[in-house]
Specification:
118 residues, mainly alpha, 3-stranded antiparallel β-sheet, 4 helices, flat
Length: 118
């Protein structure tokens, strides 16, 4: 595993379950006794699927932005279960608004291109 890939894998998995992750050697990351991230798995899961690779990079970027903006991580423990549910609900409400906007945009584009809607 290249140094950059190893560092990314360490970063990514440290965000998931940092209490279980340890570096065993330069080729293998162990984050619990039954689960290993090896070069082969890393290559097959993160390199060959460009969509997954893109999403992982976006998660990292989003995490970095959130840490900079809010000066905290998702590991924070100052919120209650209901606080987390409220945050999730607000995010999902935003998602519904985005869907509605996209639908209106699509109707506008379709109507403009074909006024009869065909």
């Amino acid at each position: 595993m290249e140094k950059e890939e190893l560092e990314f894998a360490k970063y990514y998995h440290s965000k998931i379950r940092p209490e279980l992750m340890e570096v065993v050697d330069a080729q293998t990351l162990v984050f619990d006794k039954d689960s290993y991230l090896t070069q082969e798995i890393f290559d097959s899961e993160f390199k060959q699927d460009t969509v997954v690779s893109s999403v992982i990079k976006k998660f990292k970027t989003r995490s970095d932005v959130g840490i900079k903006k809010y000066n905290t991580t998702m590991d924070r423990d100052d919120l209650s279960f209901m606080d987390w549910i409220s945050h999730l609900q607000e995010e999902l409400m935003d998602a519904v608004i985005y869907c509605e906007k996209i639908k209106k945009y699509e109707k506008t584009v379709t109507t403009t291109e074909d006024p009869k809607g065909n």
